Amino acid sequence: MKREMFEAPYPPYDPTDTSGFSYDTVVKRWPIILTNIIDHVHRLLHDMTLEAQQIRDLDVSKAEELSKKTTEGQEIISEISRLKYRMARDHELENIIQDGDILVAEYNAELESLKQASRNTWFSAPWLYAECYLYRLIRAYFNQKAYWRGFDPFSTQKEEMFKNSGAAIYQIATTMHELESEKVKLQGDPDKLEVLFKEMIQMCLWGNATDLSLLTHLSPSDIEHLQTVGKEAQEARSDFILKDDQGAVWSYIKTLANQGKRLDFVLDNAGFELFTDFVFADFLVTYTPYFSQVVFHPKLFPWFVSDVTPTDFANTISSLLSATFFPPNSTTSPDSVAHLQQMVTRWKNYIDKGIFTLATDITNGQKMTEFWNGPWPYWNMNELAPELGQWLSGSGLVIFKGDLNYRKLAGDVKWPVSTPFPTAIGPLAGSFPLLSLRTNKADVAVGIDEKVAENLDNKGEKWRVSGKYALVSFLPGRIIQ
Question: How far apart are CA 182 and CA 341, in angstroms?
């Protein structure tokens, strides 16, 4: 008998509420993203046209190929311009054309259900579905063209952002290098590990190097210092963490010592954020006795502009190992450059040995990874993606990074803020030990004291969407007797 899919007792966020962030997204954010793609393709076509003119007499076949690619690029620009027009006028979402890639039937089936409910236009469709659909539709526009199939319209943007974070990356590399001499002592000292663990969470949470007390130094005396000063810094930040399960997740992790447990990272953004995810994973595998393997879960195609694809994952390692990737910086010391090389070489060795693995490289991994590019909340993961549910149920801890993963965990519906986190994640609760690290950039938020939320609302704080506040939400797995 087929199990019924979970339905929340509250409606999803959608742009019919003109005061909500989803309305702002359809009116402003998405048109900007589409315009950026048009501009990017336009620049590429300009370069191709010049190149074709230069080689016209030298390499006829290459010139013809560039000409065909340019024509296709112009067609893509027309399609995206038409999409912008339809979006602004609240037209219906159109079926995704079969492009030989994943999830076409699933998106179109969901769209048919929305059509039956008269919720299939840009300003009436549930925000979560429409946003996922938008990136799948963009994928189809490129996939339908022979010379553009599989093209990532955001890759240049991701790379430029990453290049701008060199100073912070070198600083973190030196900080991690200073842990080397303490490695043996740290493995047997849960109190010191706890302080460092919480700093790692802060780094992954904010992805903002300037906020990190971790980026002091970590000589033996500095670790002692962090245990006192670090606590004060933690407390200062705690005002901005509206749900804080750091203590609970650490208490749980301490029970995993020397069991060879696996950590699963459901990734969010490429670039500096992925770098911090690697650092966190490295810390847990190299310096603690709690985990011996990490599996990183990417998106299979370009997603929400900056999400990690398998290509981004591979490029991150090669970029970090390149002596010329980051622009020269007078404040970067040769020691820091060496420290980064040492650390990333260790990561590369971990990848070669299977200690760090990309989910697409494991058995059934490609199929499992499809789920993350779907339009669904994670509530019914075990029904919709049973292989993935089975895999994660064997994990020591699954870390969900970022805002979209949180929206999908909670279904992006209008839960009251005081709703317990386990309630909001529905039947997924207890399937595996789960830690969500999220800075608030969308309306949905749960597990928060009602008075705290009310107080922020009364102050006029846009705490749900500003990125200034965060949630650290932990839920252990179900104990099987």
Answer: 20
CB atoms near residue 226 (< 10 Å)? 22
What is the distance, to the nearest Å, from the Cα of residue 11 to the centroid of all Cα atoms in its chain?
25
Which DSSP helix (H) or strand (E) runs through 132?
helix 127-143
CA-angle at 307, arms to 304 and 313, nearest 5°:
155
* C-alpha triplet 224, 276, 476: angle, nearest 5°: 80
Q: What is the mean pLDDT of residues 51-63?
A: 86
Which of the residue ranges 60-69, 213-222, 254-263, 392-401 would you say has the lowest mean pLDDT? 213-222
Query: How far apart are the C-alpha atoms of 219 and 178, rounded to whole Å?
Result: 6
pLDDT above 90 (res 375): yes
Q: Which two tokens stand for residue 122?
A: 């840009």
d(CA 376, CA 107) in angstroms, rounded, equals: 10
Question: How far is residue 134's CA from residue 130's CA, in Å, rounded to a whole number?
Answer: 6
DSSP assignment of 299-360 equals -SS--TTTB--HHHHHHHHHHHH-TTSSPP-TT--HHHHHHHHHHHHHHHHHHHHTSEEEGG
Of how many residues is the chain composed? 481
Measured between alpha carbons, how far is 35 from 33 in angstroms, rounded to an integer? 5
Q: Which letter does DSSP use for residue 9 in this model?
A: S
CA torsion angle for 231, 233, 234, 235 (degrees, to 10)?
90
Backbone CA torsion sign across 140, 144, 149, 154? negative
Per the listing, tokens 């909670």 go with 410
Which amino acid is located at 412 in the chain? D
Residue 190 CB-half CA count within 13 A = 10
Other beta carbons less than 10 A from residue 109's beta carbon: 10
Q: How far apart are CA 215 and CA 134, in angstroms?
A: 38
DSSP 68-123: HHHHHHHHHHHHHHHHHHHHHTTPBPPPPP--SSTTHHHHHHHHHHHHHTT--BTT
pTM of the model as a whole: 0.94
Residue 236: helix, strand or coil by DSSP? Answer: helix
The crossing angle, in degrees rounded to 10, of helices 166-177 and 334-353 is 80
pLDDT at 480: 55
Mean pLDDT of 380-404: 97
Q: Tokens 């789960």 sit at which residue?
A: 434
